[in-house]
Write a structure and sequence with these properties.
The complex is a heterodimer.
Chain A (H helix, E strand, L loop, with lengths): L9 E6 L6 H12 L5 E7 L4 H8 L8 E5 L4 H6 L3 H13 L5 E5 L16 E7 L6 H4 L2 H5 L2 E5 L4 H4 L3 H11 L5 E3 L5 H20 L38
Parallel strand pairs in A: 1-4, 1-5, 2-3, 2-4, 5-6, 6-7
Helix pairs in contact in A: 1-2
Chain B lengths: L5 H9 L14 H6 L7 H10 L1 H17 L5 H9 L4 H21 L4 H7 L6 H12 L3 H23 L4 H22 L14 H12 L8
Helix pairs in contact in B: 3-9, 3-10, 4-5, 4-8, 4-9, 6-8, 7-8, 9-10
Classes of the chains: A alpha/beta, B mainly alpha.
Family (chain A): Belongs to the SIMIBI class G3E GTPase family. UreG subfamily.
GO molecular function, one term (chain A): GTP binding
Keywords (chain A): Chaperone, GTP-binding, Nickel insertion, Nucleotide-binding
């Protein structure tokens, strides 16, 4: 079924490497938003329904609104190349609990290169954490440089892992061409408020038609001329041109 | 735009790159391996399926195609398939796969009466939807049955590469060796036209594995 341009529900993807806190971030959003928005969650677990069970047991959302999708050991495929299983799960959830305001889709923890297809989610968060090392943000990758929002999680652990969160956020900002970065800690209410405000802002943009799903892309940024540098949401028709070298 | 040849449509429908969530399926191989099936017996597992559960699917598809081409109701075909697919887990999987395939065929053949007829059914299983695609694409009954068999073989073997990695040319060799059995299956069911003729060739062990898989908390594949 093609999407109606007026689809009410915002589909928000959360991706990033294993252990960076995707499930906890989703639980946090459910806790913060469940009293004002109608929510649903799709998890993509690689080997178990662990993430779905974690979220159900967190008691932040009706367990029936949390569904797991198996990916056949292809977590990357399931959110990017053949999104069929996820799209069907999202549509079923939206139909079963209509009207939903927000569906959160959690990717199976994969690696630094996995990002969502814009055909599956309207907007996406890429998550890294200070415990993963201070150089991760500098190394870049499509999610870090071009996801709609980059979250640097577990900033409270900085002193214990020898990483300066402020430096990490600054490094991330330098490769993101002005796109937002949030330094998040579950123990820092101000950072949680910042995250919630971003989500609410995206929902408002979705509703007023100003949100255009963009692909962070699997490829390094390629220049099409000064006005296009670094943007992933433009037409790629010209990418087939014979003189176009990636 | 002229219509493509039936041969190329068959290639398209058999392609693992088709966006129908094929990567989520192991054709019950995952629970079979968990239960102790040795990896070197996977070719036997493929043959067992072609003679049992896959035979039911192929025959169902062929009979559905016959009903579609002669304007007969599809519901008795679905009922015959249900009666010959005792595992609720396998029925649920076939319906999920049918839904994914219907998304695709409704896009490929929006004008097809066969596709409309299938879309009007409640949660049609994969062989019924595939029959509509075959009708729209001009496939013969034997080509359709061969497609069902071939897809099943490839589903098992490609899942095997994920579950028990091996040199992939060995896996391709297994597929190649299974092809005559696929041909035999296709020819055997191609002339069926009535629901009562669909063989009741279930495989209780495969059905038990499918049921066990549906409730395990640890799995890579949906089914």
């Amino acid at each position: 079924m093609p999407d109606s341009p007026t689809r009410r529900t915002l589909r928000l993807g959360v991706c990033g490497p294993v252990g960076t806190g995707k499930s906890s971030l989703i639980a946090m959003l459910c806790r913060e938003l469940a009293d004002r928005l109608s929510l649903g969650v799709i998890t993509n677990d690689i080997y178990t329904d662990e993430d779905a069970r974690f979220l159900r047991s967190a008691g932040v959302l009706d367990p029936a609104r949390i569904r797991a999708v198996e990916t056949g050991a292809c977590p990357h495929t399931a959110i990017r190349d053949d999104i069929t299983a996820n799209l069907m799960a999202v549509e079923d959830l939206e139909a079963d609990f209509a009207p939903l305001d927000l569906v959160l889709v959690e990717s199976g923890g994969d690696n630094l290169t996995a990002t969502f297809s814009p055909a599956l989610v309207d907007t996406q968060i890429f998550l890294i954490d200070v415990a993963g090392g201070g150089d991760v943000a500098r190394k870049g990758g499509p999610g870090i440089t071009r996801a709609d929002l980059l979250v640097v999680n577990k900033t409270d652990l900085g002193p214990y892992v020898g990483v300066d969160p402020a430096q990490m956020v600054s490094d991330a900002g330098s490769v993101r061409d002005g796109r937002p970065v949030i330094a998040l800690s579950a123990h820092d209410p101000a950072s949680i408020a910042e995250l919630v405000a971003w989500v609410i802002g995206r929902l408002a943009a979705h509703r007023d038609g100003s949100l255009h799903p963009a692909d962070p892309g699997p490829m390094a940024p390629h220049s099409h001329g000064p006005s296009h540098e670094g943007h992933g949401d433009h037409d790629h028709d010209h990418a087939l041109a014979a003189d176009h070298v990636h | 735009m002229s219509a493509p040849s039936a041969g190329l449509v068959a290639h398209l429908l058999a392609d693992a790159r088709l966006p129908v969530a094929g990567h989520t399926q192991s054709a019950t191989l995952e629970p079979a391996l968990v239960a102790g099936l040795p990896a070197d017996r996977i070719p036997d597992y493929v043959r067992l399926r072609l003679r049992t559960v896959t035979r039911v699917e192929a025959a169902t598809a062929v009979v559905a195609l016959s009903h579609q081409r002669s304007g007969r109701d599809l519901r008795p075909v679905v009922e015959a398939w249900q009666a010959r697919t005792p595992s609720a887990a396998m029925r649920a999987t076939a319906r999920t796969q049918g839904k994914a395939l219907l998304r695709l065929v409704a896009r490929l053949w929006p004008e097809s009466a066969a596709v409309h007829a299938v879309a009007a059914l409640s949660a049609p299983p994969r062989p019924i939807v595939l029959a509509a695609a075959a009708d729209a694409g001009g496939l013969s009954p034997v080509a359709l049955a061969g497609l069902v068999g071939y897809d099943d073989v490839q589903t098992v073997i490609s899942a095997a590469l994920k579950l028990t990695p091996m040199d992939p040319v060995v896996a391709a060799q297994w597929v190649h060796h299974a092809l005559p059995e696929v041909d035999t299956l296709a020819v055997a069911v191609a002339t069926l036209t009535r629901p009562g003729g669909i063989p009741a060739s279930g495989a209780p062990q495969i059905e038990a594995w499918a049921e066990a898989h549906a409730v395990t908390p640890r799995r890579l594949f949906s089914a």
